[in-house]
Amino acid sequence: MNKYIIIGVCCCCMASCIKDEALNKECDIESAWIEGKEYEDYFYKTTEMRKEVNSAETNIVFSVRSLLSLPTQIPLNFKITDGATIEPANGSMQDFTKGPVSYTVTSQDGEWKRTYNVAFQEVPLHAEKFSFEHFEIDTGDAMLGSTNEMHVFYELAANNEHNYCWATGNPGSALTKSGSKPEEFPVYSAPDGKAGRGVCLNTQSAGMMGEWMKKPIAAGSLFLGEFVIDYVLTDALKATRFGVPISKEPVRITGWYKYKPGEKFTDKDMKVYPDRKDEASIYAVFYRNTDDKGEAYVLDGHAVEDLDKMLDNPQVYKVARVASLPATDTWTQWEMFFEGKDAPDDIVTVQGFNLALVFSSSMRGAQFEGAIGSTLYVDEVEVSYEK
């Protein structure tokens, strides 16, 4: 065959392959950051100038010392999925002092869009009371065909903006659900709280997929921190990242609860243990959020597997836990005190520590042990800080 014909055929094949290659349908922000030494003084730590964004997040929050002194023009940079575009433009100057700025990412094929809200807020959580009155409905990711509705809890920041400091395991449960309403998830806002609304946490079956993966139950869990859906199928304990920065040292936490354990306690193989009763869990950890190399540190599910050994972790300074939560159908008060070593004031005041506060309807839920039907209600939680 003539060599020019062969070359021509190869070129046509290559052109056909290039033409047929599918355009990217992803439209995600993977990370966001502020560059420039002139902006460093507005943050407690320079590590707070960059945020890694997991695939389930659409709210990106940067914590600053003060909104009053924040410049009205800040250039925000983004890493987005290949081929996608973002509006407003990447690196463009924006005013975040008046509230969140919305960014829309459009996929390379132009068929999919995703909107992110980026906000700057004053750092200290300083909340002394959590009444769980504030929530909104998350409808999930339309790209994945989600038709679920989940409750997302938030606190009101000093400037009345939403502070999404609370996370749940609901996004993980959504993988085995379709068309579910908020009350059908392990965690949802309950109308009959101790005062106003409260939170209901309940342990559910994870369905056939969960049983096949040796993760047969989904305990209701609510915690200060974030849930990273990317790890759910590969390393579930890594999906829970506990803690938010605070600038005061906690000494005691109190609250109200109701609890009813499920009927059959099972393990990850769904073996029933007639002599075991499920237990709810409430605990808190006060820990250093950078390690001895200056790298950011966060507690995940692996780090809290054994609470009795938490103080052996050099990052952990204090731990508090409710010793017992007996079954009760009336609102009952609980309290827990922090025990451990005192933290250096100069590090605490510059947001060098995180507070992790965790509620679960099944104490062994992270190990996929518990009783389907176990239900914990929580409301009116109050944190006392050292003066």
Number of helices: 4
Distance between the termini: 89 Å
Supply Rg.
Answer: 23 Å
Question: What low-confidence regions span 5 or more consecutive residues with pLDDT below 50?
Answer: 1-19
Give a short account of the largest sheet.
Answer: 9 strands, antiparallel
The backbone outline, from C-alpha atoms, is globular
Instruction: Tell me the total number of β-strands.
Output: 32
Strand content: 35-45%
Label the structural class: mainly beta
Helix content: under 10%
Average pLDDT across residues? 88
Topology:
Elements: H1 3-20, E1 29-33, E2 50-52, E3 59-64, E4 74-75, E5 77-80, E6 85-87, E7 93-94, E8 101-106, E9 113-122, E10 129-130, E11 135-138, E12 150-153, E13 155-156, E14 162-163, E15 166-168, H2 170-173, E16 187-190, E17 198-202, E18 204-205, H3 207-212, E19 217-218, E20 221-227, E21 240-242, E22 244-246, E23 250-260, E24 265-266, E25 281-288, E26 299-300, E27 316-321, E28 328-337, E29 339-340, H4 345-348, E30 353-360, E31 370-371, E32 375-385
Parallel strand pairs: 3-9
Antiparallel strand pairs: 1-2, 1-5, 4-7, 6-8, 8-9, 10-32, 11-12, 13-14, 15-20, 16-17, 17-32, 18-19, 20-21, 20-30, 21-26, 22-30, 23-28, 23-32, 24-31, 25-27, 25-30, 27-29
